[in-house]
Design goal:
Alpha-D-Glucose-1,6-Bisphosphate, Chain A, domain 4; DNA polymerase, domain 1; 388 residues; Ubiquitin-like (UB roll); five-stranded mixed β-sheet; alpha+beta
């Protein structure tokens, strides 16, 4: 045992401490500062991070006795810290926390990034955050929150942000109104003569899902159908168009999958390359239930398999911000989207079927979320056990 003395959150403290006692245990057990969360206790997860002499330190692997005379700040001691006040507001605004277990350590690291790396871009922020693990948010909100604080501080100082273009990706959509810039002016289309669908450029922080379906109709007929936006929307469960003006549409889409329920309202623009039978639908919107924001590009390319059969390759890239971002990279959700692409193809075939009456062709597509949810689960189980 030895007597240690240091400052904790502006208050001088002292007391007896065993040599092997870690700082995190000492703060929690002796001073009841339980905002310091202990997770892995191996210095890996970063949840226990506190400031020691204004630097982030893993309190679970730092001996309390080694902090003799130091100034320590835990999450309870940031009340007068201007940077932390901005970060807390940004974390709330960008939905950068969920269960909250990683948040005290995440805030300590975020504060260090803002003060030490004022010109940090997204790649740098992600690298600096690599020692702080989060099991809930998907990190997108956390990164967006830190970027917003960095951008605000650069603007306040009169400095032109070197990454202003990237920062625009984090600006919230204003409800149903979507700026034209969000929908883009040029589609990601292949150059003339290209034999394979061009893959649109990957963007940092975006997720990507690819799929395809075939329909038993000639390429020219399928291409003409895909230009009819109301008809295409009718093939997508939960989609409703409220306004159609040429290549631009407005509407909403309702989604329910397991615990996830959302109703996105927004706008989209369709751009097509008639020479190569390729198109891209660029959209943006906001969920009225969770206030989550979304943006996405749905690129598609048609390929004739025979005189009466066409393959449609789909390349979906999307970005989610807010509470629903936790689902954006889930393998289960990816399987769900691929299943929806396949079902969308079946709906297109039905809509184009000349043997059906107009009422039958135009019948609204209804989604049974329970059936689809368990169908996706069953497919994953079969793959797990190698079933064919």
């Amino acid at each position: 045992m030895q007597t240690i003395e240091f400052t904790v959150n502006g208050r001088r403290v002292s007391g007896a401490c065993a040599d092997r006692t870690h700082l995190g245990d000492y703060l929690r057990d002796t001073h009841r500062l339980t905002g310091t969360h202990l997770g892995c206790e191996h210095g890996v997860c970063g949840a226990c991070t506190v400031l020691v002499d204004d630097k982030p330190v893993r309190s679970c692997i730092t001996f309390a006795a080694a902090c003799q005379g130091a100034e320590i700040v835990t999450v309870e001691g940031y009340e007068d810290d201007a940077v932390m006040a901005d970060l807390r507001a940004a974390f709330n605004r960008h939905h950068a926390l969920q269960c909250g277990f990683c948040t005290p350590g995440m805030l300590a690291t975020a504060r260090d990034i803002v003060l030490r790396l004022p010109d940090a871009d997204e790649a740098t922020i992600r690298h600096e955050l690599s020692g702080n693990l989060c099991r809930c948010t998907g990190y997108m909100g956390i990164v967006a929150a830190i970027r917003s604080v960095l951008d605000a501080r650069r603007t306040a100082a009169g400095v032109i942000a070197r990454h202003a273009g990237a920062a625009a990706a984090t600006m919230p959509f204003a409800g149903f109104t979507v700026a034209a810039e969000a929908l883009g002016t040029q589609a990601h289309l292949a150059a003339a003569g290209s034999a394979e669908p061009e893959r649109s450029a990957d963007r940092k922080g975006w997720s990507r899902i690819e799929g395809s379906f075939t329909v038993p109709y000639a390429l020219e007929d399928v291409w003409a159908f895909m230009a009819d936006l109301p008809a295409v929307a009718g093939c997508l469960p939960g989609a409703v168009l409220t306004e159609v003006a040429g290549e631009k549409v407005k509407g909403h889409i309702a989604i329910k999958f397991g615990p996830m329920s959302a109703r996105f309202e927004g706008a989209a623009r369709l751009q097509r390359d008639d020479a190569n039978q390729r198109g891209v639908l660029k959209g943006a919107g906001q969920d009225s239930l969770s206030n989550s924001k979304a943006a996405g590009d749905i690129a598609y390319a048609l390929k004739a398999l025979s005189a009466g059969e066409t393959e449609v390759a789909v390349d979906l890239q999307y970005s989610l911000q807010g509470p629903l971002a936790q689902f954006s990279r889930s393998g289960l959700v990816r399987d769900f989207v691929r299943r929806m692409i396949a079902d969308f193809g079946k709906s297109v075939s039905r809509r184009m079927d000349p043997t059906l009456s107009e009422a039958e062709r135009n019948q609204a597509v209804r989604l049974n979320p329970v059936t689809m949810f368990f169908g996706v689960l069953w497919e994953r189980v079969k793959r797990l056990f190698g079933a064919r």
